[in-house]
Amino acid sequence: MKKFSSFVAFALLCTMFTACSNLKINRPAAEPSGTTADKPSGGEASGESGTKKSDGANIAALEEAMEIGKYNAYVQLNNYMTGRLDQALTRYVDKLGDGEQPIIEKHFSFTMLSISDNDKSNLNKQFGFAEKTPAFPAVDPAVVKLKPVMDDLIAVLSEAHDYYETKGYVDDNFAKCKELHPKIIKARDAYYAAADEFLKAMAGMGAERRQQSLKKFQDNDEQVQYSALKFLADAEALSVEMEEQGITAKNILDLDMGKFKAKYDVLVEDLKNLTQQSQDDARVQKERLRSDYLKSYVNEAKEVKAAASGIIERMNKKSKVDDFDLKNRFFLENRDGTPEKFNKKLQGAIGKYNDMK
């Protein structure tokens, strides 16, 4: 089962919210009363200069607002794909498989995740940004390709949800189940191909913007915020390392510990720095951070580090994940020493980081 990494989008959204919260759009300056002849030449020059500066600032602010709005729309699209939609696909395949024919157990029962009307409305709005300015050359074409295949997938998933919600299989002895299954798998495979292109484009843009945020925090001497974001960035590096190696709970003992440990050591140092910075009350106040939100984030960061440590412990013990746990995602996300638990804890930390903003 293909899995998408969701960290990049979540972390980027919060950095862009930082920009949004500081954005102020200046209203055009009022025209001065009187005629040109009534005003001294110096005042005229000053007034024209002030108006031009105000107009320039206004245009720049509007352009920034448009860029942020479009970027956040794409982030929300990315988050939905790696969140709710991925969960719906995972639950379906875990139950019915991804072969040519569905797996139908003797005592069949299935609760399928829905794609709500509100979700569909939001997705249409997010896809609509592909035609809006400013252009994102690396992402817009991928969004255009993604829309039709994602529409097809959501349509067949919605049809299947209605069928399973009403237990239609009781009435037709699974006839429609067998009809829908190959359509879902075909639509899913087409979606994955387009989704990969979009997510990779977003990851590239995201990495660049995250570096800009880190530099901004350094330049402004916002060390707490720098440490908080750097921890997430380096935690992502661990997640990506496992993803690139193709490591899941099923084959955890195949993990290249040399590559993993190198990134793990950086994360350990990040947590040390974050903890120290967060305990500096004067600095926390200077950066206008709420201490209770910051404390919650640091606690979540500690759990992320502990989840990474759990993987090392499992590797040292050469302990496989139980076959029973491999059949249930809930168990995978709550067993020590699994990539699934690490990613779940990472998402929790991202949520707490967003709360700080």
Describe the structure.
InterPro entries: DUF3829 (IPR024291). Residues 1-21 form the signal peptide. It comes from Paenibacillus tyrfis. Keywords: Signal. Residues 28-54 are annotated as: Disordered. The chain folds into two domains: 66-98 and 114-220; 221-356, A middle domain of Talin 1. The chain is built from 13 helices and no strands. It has helices spanning 7-22, 41-96, 117-128, 140-165, 168-172, 175-219, 223-244, 257-278, 281-286, 291-317, 323-326, 329-332, 339-356. The chain is globular and about 75 Å long. It has 357 residues and is mainly alpha-helical. Helix 4 (140-165) packs across helix 6 (175-219) and helix 10 packs antiparallel against helix 13 (339-356). Mean pLDDT is 85; it is low at 5-44.
